[in-house]
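FAQ

Q: What does a record look like?
A: Structure on top, sequence underneath. For example:
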């Protein structure tokens, strides 16, 4: 939970900010050809970050209530959202080694 709260979420929020600025810039251009692509990416990152926030909060409550089955399900949901974000967030912003880094570079 602490890794998600202190590393993942700040990186994702920073990337959302970058995408929002890019989207504002493309909207201001009348014939921006990449507006739809930027908007789609921004919405996907926002969806996955919302899932991440939701699952972190849910997991904290389930740990407090000591419900092992629910904890495992929520951990899996959280992992899925974070894994998706890893593939979306700009590589230089991602705070942890990627699977590729661990397998082939390190």
């Amino acid at each position: 939970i602490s890794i998600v709260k202190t590393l993942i979420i700040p990186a994702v929020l920073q990337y959302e900010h970058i995408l929002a600025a890019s989207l504002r810039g493309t909207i201001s251009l009348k014939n921006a050809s990449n507006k739809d692509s930027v908007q789609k990416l921004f919405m996907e990152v926002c969806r996955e970050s919302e899932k991440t926030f939701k699952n972190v909060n849910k997991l904290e409550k389930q740990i407090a209530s000591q419900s092992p089955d629910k904890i495992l399900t929520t951990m899996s949901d959280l992992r899925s959202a974070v894994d998706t974000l890893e593939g979306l967030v700009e590589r230089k912003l991602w705070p942890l080694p990627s699977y590729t880094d661990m397998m082939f570079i390190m």
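Q: Is there anything notable about this one?
A: Helices lie at 2-28, 35-65, 68-88, 99-105.
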